[in-house]
Sequence to fold (213 residues):
Amino acid sequence: MAINGHFWIENSDGEVIWDPHFPTYDLICRIRSANPKKPHYRKKSATRQREMISQHILPMLTSVKRAMKEGYVPPEDFYTPQSHNCASNCVRYKLKGGEGTICYGDMGWEQTGGTIWYEFEDEASDMDHFVASQMEQHKAMSQMTKKERRDLKKKQQKDDKKNAKAKAKYHAQMAQVPRSNADQMERMVACGGKVLACGAVMATMATLASNGY
Fold:
């Protein structure tokens, strides 16, 4: 089951204490006329949260903990948050000893006028996650200055390099792990791959590529 909503970390008072921000969010907010500094979260029911956590968090967490008990030592970059992968990011956060509770629900930003745009919405279909229209995307890109486009591209390239470096270190470490543990880790990563259901982010990056950014 794909993830249309979002995972984040809250403290005992219900305050969001951890949810990394990525460069792609800035462009999404520009397209949606939203403020990236004003994120909004809307938790789903306790039943729905338990369902999603049992499907997308516990399998990863259990597999990695088992492998670590049997000698697997994740590289430091393993804990670096990766865009489009909220479930795995929360697992990494908890494995590193992060405090708080993993929550699931809708996430977005406040738009001009005070309305809330939930970019990652549990009840939305995959198509609802895509940017409303090519015209909207083109308009947002055309309003950016050359410097803004260059800065956005640099941020994304920096993010991509971090992810590539983390992936290379992961494979190097995997080569040293007993095969049974490696299989468990690979299943964990495959499970995490199903989490890449942030449609609007993917659509945005496709637009950037098609426009030469």
About this structure: Residues 128-133, 184-213 have pLDDT under 50 and may be disordered. The first helix runs from residue 23 to 31. Residues 21 and 118 are 15 Å apart (CA to CA).
